[in-house]
From TrEMBL:
Keyword annotations of the record: Hydrolase, Thiamine biosynthesis
Protein name per Swiss-Prot or TrEMBL: Aminopyrimidine aminohydrolase
Functional description taken from the UniProt entry: Catalyzes an amino-pyrimidine hydrolysis reaction at the C5' of the pyrimidine moiety of thiamine compounds, a reaction that is part of a thiamine salvage pathway. Thus, catalyzes the conversion of 4-amino-5-aminomethyl-2-methylpyrimidine to 4-amino-5-hydroxymethyl-2-methylpyrimidine (HMP).
Keyword Hydrolase: yes
GO cellular component terms, A-Z: cytosol
Residues that, per the record, bind substrate: D46, E84, E138
Alphabetical list of PANTHER family matching this protein: BIFUNCTIONAL TH2 PROTEIN, SI:CH1073-67J19.1-RELATED
Catalytic activity: thiamine + H2O = 5-(2-hydroxyethyl)-4-methylthiazole + 4-amino-5-hydroxymethyl-2-methylpyrimidine + H(+); 4-amino-5-aminomethyl-2-methylpyrimidine + H2O = 4-amino-5-hydroxymethyl-2-methylpyrimidine + NH4(+)
Pathway this chain belongs to: Cofactor biosynthesis; thiamine diphosphate biosynthesis
Database matches in Pfam families: TENA_THI-4
Ranges of residues in domain Thiaminase-2/PQQC: 14-212
Similarity field: Belongs to the TenA family.
Domain of life, per lineage: Bacteria
Length: 213
């Protein structure tokens, strides 16, 4: 039997996939030992990600080829606009990151790169291209979060960043997105592979950037 389309994409994205899910940031967050300054830098940059991510999800809602998929994607967009946003605000408060810093700190290169990639994928108006970037952003995050053993760190900033990406609803979302990409991706395999690979490279660079001053 041939492998699932999304498994083949992941395979082709090595070594960046494994370097991401086994990144220093992942090892540290599992142990609850990410330095507060690193966590602050990471979250300030990641908060900027949410805006383009929602735009990309909107593009997937618009380009989906079934009513069922449109409903699920739209529900997921609602979740992101709600829960994750309060997490960021509570985390910034706990880390002492004020509004000025959140606004003034310049985008790092991987943040800019991700924003352009998400906008580029949205602009294709192609459902599988939007899915390719969404699948990486979700599946890769589930894969690292799954590797964090119990017990969770006592610090809620680190613990909730893990549980946000490893919980039953999130697993369902990843399973759904992967199934959609398995179903629709092969028709546009070349473009989809290119988006997938570039997204994985940026995920790795995004983790690296949290450790750069
Ligand atoms: C660099 C980076 N890549 C992927 C994610 C994961 N992610 C982005 S939006 C979203 C949906 C709601 O949780 C998820 C899981 C991230 N946060 N930061």
């Amino acid at each position: 039997m041939s492998p699932r389309f999304t498994d083949a994409l992941r395979e082709a994205s090595e070594p960046d996939w494994t370097a991401s899910v086994e990144h220093r940031f992942v090892r540290e967050i599992a142990a609850g030992s990410v330095a507060p300054a690193v966590m602050a830098t990471y979250l300030v940059q990641d908060h900027r990600f949410v805006d383009s991510f929602l735009a990309l999800l909107g593009a997937a809602v618009a380009s989906a080829d079934t009513f069922e998929a449109r409903l699920r994607l739209a529900r997921f967009a609602g979740t992101i606009a709600g829960e994750e946003n309060t997490y960021f605000l509570r985390a910034f408060e706990a880390l002492g990151v004020d509004v000025e810093r959140r606004i003034d700190e310049p985008d790092k290169a991987p943040t800019t790169g991700f924003q352009s990639l998400m906008r580029e994928a949205a602009a294709t108006r192609s459902y599988p291209s939007a899915l390719a970037v969404l699948v990486v952003a979700e599946w890769l995050y589930l894969e690292w979060a799954r590797r964090c053993p119990e017990p969770l760190p006592p610090d809620f900033v680190q613990a909730e960043w893990i549980t946000l990406h490893d919980n039953p609803d999130f697993r369902d979302v990843v399973a759904f997105l992967r199934a959609e990409l398995d179903r629709t991706g092969p028709a546009e395999a070349e473009r989809v592979s290119d988006f997938f690979r570039r997204a994985v490279r940026l995920e790795r660079a995004f983790f690296d950037a949290a450790y750069e001053a």
